[in-house]
C-alpha cells in the first residue's frame, strides 16, 4: 500500500508500556532514595558543622585558659626566683662586707706582729747577765702564738668566704638566666594567647605538632626550678653560718689579742718595776760600798801610819839590845833592863806583826770590796740598760692602743681601781 507520508523508525528495540511504567517507577524510587540520602547528609553535615564549631570554640577556650594558667604558673615561678635572686644578691653584699671587715682585721694584724717582733728584737739587746727567761718573755711568745693562730683562722674564713661568694654568684647568674628565659617565655605565651582567628599573622605551618629537641617534661621543669631555689636557699643558709663564723672569729681574735695585750703589759710593767727595784737596790749597795770603801781606805792609811810608827821603836829597842851585848864580860848581867828590853822587843815585834796582818787583811777587804764595787757598777749599768730596754717596750706597744687611751686609763685598767675613783 502506498503511504501518504514516509515513516521512518529508529533502529532501536521498542519497549512496552509496562516496561515504560516500570522504568518511571524505578526512577521515582531512585529519586526518593536520593532525596532521603540528601536529607540525611544535610542533617549529618549540619550536626557535624555544629559539633565541630562547638568543639573548636571550646578547644580554643580551654587552650586559652590553659595558656592563662600556664602564664600564671610561669609568673609565680618567676616571682619566686626573683625573690630568691634578690635574697642571693643581698646575701652576697652582706657576705662581702663581712669578708672585707675580716680582711681589714687581717691586715691590721700586721701591726701587732710588727710590734711583737720589735719587742723581741728590743729585748734581745739586753746584755747576757740580764737575758732572763722571765714571765714577760713567755707572755710575748704567747701573744705571738695568739696572733699567728688568729691570722691563720681569719685567712681560712676569708678563703671560705671567697669560695662561698663565688658559689652564690654562680647560682645568682643561674637564677638570672632562668628569669630571663621565663621573661622570653611569657612574652611568647602572651603573643600566643592573644592570637585569634581574625589575626592577619596566622598561616599554615609545616609539621606544627613536632616536639622540639631538648624539650623537657613538666615534672622535670618544676624539679629544675625547685632544685635551683633549693640550692640558693642552702647556699644562703651556709653563707649566714659563715658570716656568723667570720664575726665570731673576728671578735674572738680581738678579745684574745686585747686580753693578751693587757696581760703582756701588766707583766711588762711588773718587770720594769722589778728591774727598777733591783736597780735601786744596786744604787743603795753602790752608795754603801762607796762609804765603806772610804772608811776602809782611811783605816788602811791609819794602819800604815801605825806600822810606820812602829819602825823607830823597833829600831830603838833593837839598837839598845845590840849595844848592851857589847858590855864587858863581867858586866854582861841579865838584869831587869835586859829583861825589860827583851819584853819590849817582843811586844814591839808582836804589835808590828799584828798591824801588818791587819793591814794585809784591810787591803784584802778593800780590794774585795772594790772588785765587788766594780761588779755592782757593771751590774748597775746592765740594770739601767735592761730598764731602758723594757721601758722602750711601752713606746713600741703604743700602736696597739686607741688614740684616746692614755697611760693613766691603762693603769686604772691594770690595777682594777676604776670603781674606787671619783666620777667626773
TrEMBL record:
Give me the segments passing through the membrane: none
What are the subcellular locations of this protein?
Answer: Cytoplasm, Cytoskeleton, Cilium axoneme
Q: Name one GO cellular component term.
A: microtubule cytoskeleton
The biological process GO terms on file are: cilium assembly; cilium movement involved in cell motility
Domain of life, per the record? Eukaryota
Where does the record place a coiled coil?
279-306, 370-397
Q: Which InterPro entries match?
A: Tektin-like (IPR048256), Tektins (IPR000435)
Q: Which is a Pfam family this sequence falls into?
A: Tektin
Q: Which UniProt keywords apply?
A: Cell projection, Cilium, Coiled coil, Cytoplasm, Flagellum
Q: Is-annotated flag, keyword Coiled coil?
A: yes
Question: Which protein family is it in?
Answer: Belongs to the tektin family.
Report the protein name in the record: Tektin
